[in-house]
Amino acid sequence: MIAALYIRVSTDDQLEFSPDAQKRALIEYAKKNNYQIDEHYIFIDEGITGTSAQKRPAFQNMIATAKKKPKPFDAILVHKFDRFARSREDSVVYKSLLRKECGIKVISVTEQLEDDKFSVILEAMLEAMAEYYSLNLSDEVIKGMTEKARRGGVQSKPILGYDIIDNKRVVNKEEAEIIKKIYDMCINGQSIGSIAKHLNMLGIKSKTGSPFESRRIKYIIQNPVYLGITRWNYTHCQGSRIVIKPESEWITVENTHEPIVSQQTWDEAQKVLGTWHKDVKPRSTEYIHWLGGILRCSDCNGTLVYKTARFKRKDGSIRNADGYQCGKYKIGSCNTSNYIKIKDVENHIIKTLTATLDIVNETWSLEGLNIEYENKDDEIALYKTQLSKLNQKLERAKKAYLDDIDTLEEYKANKEMFQKEIIEITNLINNYSNNHINPQKVAEFKDKLVTAIEAVKDDSISVMSKNIVLKAFIKSIIYNKQEDTLITIFYI
Which SMART domains is this protein grouped with (predicted)? Predict the structure, then answer.
């Protein structure tokens, strides 16, 4: 029998749980119980803390290996059950998967259990105790970090305006000037988008070397760190989202480092920022126009977003100039507006759809395609028969060698010849499939074109319905204002 070894060491483990100590114990158990150890099946996660199995690369690699057919090993040896998983949910899920789908046992060499009902209960108790320890450890870590925050210690990466020296924030004079400029532009009425655009045009980068955008500017203006205040426990992760905690849970400590802006500057900036955002409405989940989410910027590949524009003529009448503009330009991370009027893009789409339908009708007749496709099926079936025969010959050549009928040299020569023919026929099948058009797909594409043309012209059909019809076969429409081109990319 073959056994895999899984070794996990977290940052809080003592010497007795070191990788070498765990490995020695596992190998000793394997020898006593007639398990063979393959070096390829020794999986080690070092310095891994926390309870989630998803955050352990070696563990995930082991599970993926265990799923292979035929199964590569019969058991997984661990030092203790809490090395395998501290979360009962993870433990149940992965042990069940390994046992039922892979036929692989998980064995703790220091907590040996039989396969009776009592052992199942005891195993669950051991895992529950390990999970409690992990949760308790998390609480202790949070307590320690909280105390560190109260003393003004740094518990985050360096931010723009400061360097971290000896675990203290020290003003970076060059970057501090950028921070002062951001606050000054804000107080003087510049929007966060225009501030980001201005900095990007000057070639100024964030601390991480990336371009500025409006949300980064907003974060800088609202961050009390520039007042000399350390703020911690401000946010937490909720899945993939970062959520702001209630203010009562924040930990803030004043005068922990040198400020970059004054209290007066800070207060004025907050006041200006508040006037920008007090009337902001929640983002709508519906598109204003049926082209929503389809138009793309040729410069950054960002989505063009709807822009409302009204202009008053000399005679007092109002001119509607609604259009689409690059969303990243709006927040300052793209230098090209790529603005296009609604009427211009609508006319282009209708002309493109109509012209595409004409080309499809002129180029392909469904009757001719059906005959060609049937002939193609016959050709492919013939090639597949030849391929099957070659694979059988290859198996017979292998058997002849294993039965000592052919020499190794003869087997190698036959294998090379058959494999060469197999590759040639496989390429023929692939080329034949790729170079012939499926009449069913052409018919479906034509139907979608006709439906889309009718839909966009029909005022009684809703914006969302039109949008769904277009997105069924249009991947994107790329607009380049400088060249005055709109390139439509279809799903075929």
Answer: Resolvase
Q: Six-digit token pair at 388?
A: 């099957």
Number of structural domains in the chain? 3
**d(Cα 34, Cα 54) in Å, to the nearest integer?**
32
User: How many angstroms separate the CA atoms of 446 and 439, rounded?
Assistant: 11
- 110 with 237, same domain: the answer is no
Task: Give strand ranges (E) for 230-327.
Answer: 230-232, 235-238, 241-244, 251-253, 295-297, 304-307, 310-312, 318-320, 323-326
Whether 191 sits among the annotated catalytic residues: the reply is no
Give the integer Cα–Cα distance in Å for 449 and 455. 10
* Banded pLDDT at 47 (limits 50, 70, 90): low
Query: Residue 190 burial (CB < 10 Å; 0-12/13-18/19+)?
Result: middle
Residues 102 and 210 occupy one common structural domain: no
Predicted confidence (pLDDT) per residue in 82-119, tens digit: 767 655 556 666 776 787 788 898 888 887 654 444 44
pLDDT tens for residues 204-220?
A: 888 888 888 888 999 99
Which of the residues 10, 18, 191, 476 is marked catalytic?
Answer: 10
Pair 54, 184 in one domain: no
**d(Cα 87, Cα 457) in Å, to the nearest integer?**
57
22 and 102 belong to one structural domain: yes
pLDDT at 304: 92
Q: Assess whether 18 and 101 both reside in one domain.
A: yes
Q: In 3-state terms, the chain is what percent helix, strand and coil (to 5)?
A: 50, 15, 30
Taking a C-beta distance cutoff of 8 angstroms, is the pair 137, 129 a contact?
A: no
